[in-house]
Amino acid sequence: MKAFLIAVVAAVVLATGASFLLAENQRFAYQAFATSGARVSDPGTNLVGPRWTGDIKEPGKAGHKAEAGS
Amino acid sequence: MARMKFLCDADRCIECNACVTACKNEHEVPWGINRRRVITLNDGKPGERSVSMACMHCTDAPCAAVCPVNCFYTTADAVVLHSKDLCIGCGYCFYACPFGAPQYPRVGNFGSRGKMDKCTYCSGGPEVDLSVAEYEKYGSNRLAEGKLPLCAEMCSTKSLLAGDGEMIAQIYKERVIKRGYGSGAWGWKTAYRETIAI
Amino acid sequence: MPMRRLTSLFLLAATLALTVPAVAQVRAPDGAPNPTASSVNEEMLFKQDPKIHGRISIPNATAANLIQPQGREWREFRESWMPWIGALAVLGMIVALGLFYFTRGRIRLEHSEESGKKILRFNSFERFSHWMTATCFIVLSLSGLNYIFGKRLLMPLIGPEAFATLAQYGKYAHIYLAWPFMLGVLFMLVLWIKDNIPGKIDWIWLKQGGGLLGDAHPSAGRFNAGQKMVFWMVVGFGFAMGATGIMMIFPFAATDINGMQIMQVIHSLIGVVFIAGILAHIYIGSLGMEGAYDAMGSGEVDLAWAKVHHDLWVKEQQAKTASGPQLGRGQVPAE
Description:
The structure holds three protein chains of three kinds.
Chain A: H1 2-25, H2 29-32, H3 59-69
Chain B: E1 4-8, H1 18-27, E2 36-41, E3 49-54, H2 62-66, E4 72-74, E5 80-82, H3 92-96, H4 132-138, H5 150-153, E6 160-164, H6 165-179, H7 188-192
Antiparallel strand pairs in B: 1-6, 2-3, 4-5
Chain C: H1 2-25, H2 42-48, E1 52-53, E2 55-56, E3 65-67, H3 71-104, E4 118-120, H4 124-158, H5 160-192, H6 200-207, H7 225-249, H8 257-285, H9 294-297, E5 300-302, H10 303-309, H11 311-320
Helix pairs in contact in C: 3-8, 4-5, 5-7, 7-8, 10-11
């Protein structure tokens, strides 16, 4: 039982470790598939929001266009 | 309802990439993500042709079939859209897509790969039409405003055609008959299982 | 001189006569040159190569593929074949085990004068490695099956939103728990490979039905032929799942889209067979045989059980320790 519990804990710890290690090696599309040639602002502030989730902190900025169109 | 399609007349495309730029600007598409792209075949050789390609909004779309969370749906205009709220970023649609349309915010296929992004035929997503939430996730909804996709609308040589399949096929047919040649509707056979017979 | 000029003129005329009709053929009806005559077209390119590839100006080389219709075959496999193959493998094994249970029944512990005495079968590190791999495997198999059956079985029950959230966490679990799983497989390979080399004795064990199909108890070392098969299945499938999975976790690192389609096919096919195999392993290690679970539970098995099922191993162990391997409950080795 003890070995089993340690095994479960170890699996969770290793999986968490793997998630951090993998996240370190994760690359954004803007790093991989875009050149720095014509950037005028920081990447990730458009459309999908800074965290690339679709949640934008300031909805007014991105939303004015859509509101104007409706 | 119309059956919306894209048609790229490769004999007119001059690889100016205006369609790509128009798309990126209209929808504020992030860097590195290309909902539309221009591919040049036989580059630098005689008979070189460029084709503008995006999601073709296939009939019986393979992406929708393989999606493990069924996040795709087809609108009344036969546009293939998806819900970013349901998408888990597994990459299966990218395996299935013949046109390489699905894009992801991150490269590695681990947890935080992000939500898939692709051409919406300028018609947003499952959110309320023209809402802020829809704009933030999918970009603008020109179809709801009664306009066609911007890439085709502003194509400088009118190479890229968007609209009802039969209508754009008719325009293309007339062109081919008038000028006497045409290299065909690229991708139609794969996307719609039909070609334009002239 | 004039004769020579005449000859060359004649030659020129002959050449023109031969070439002019050919040029005329590639002209449009109004006499304009036809640029498509020499241009590429879809049909021709598909004859040269199964996918149409060009040049692209964005720094994403994989976007240079214009059309690659191979996804259709992959879709056919994933949507039309895989659900049936998966259901057949998993449900087939459950039915087979059920039938076995109701015909053969639970294999009972045979009592002898040595019943009650214990012998250490798996030390704590062996049990740790086993359970780490096992817990990861269960989560991996459930989240893996979710990719195939989730939208068919679970989604109609709990609704798309709840299902998408569950599938998202399932995907995280699948990708992150894969690493301790692979480590566990590696540990078990190192720990047990020396006891799992196939030999003549395994052939005899198999011919006698392994004690599963009859009342015979063919002799076996630390692991019998059945257990060796489980071991090699776990190692082989484990490595295959790891290799194909890593290629999907890192898109385009080693293969292109077609490669990843094949990796997904291999991954899913091996996956369901692996699940079926492990179901049988779970059955015989718990419900199917009395006394077997203790080996991985407490690590100590009943000496009577060990003598019946792993006679050669018990002899070996008893020869190793002069005092005999019998350990009382209180004398558990350092854990």
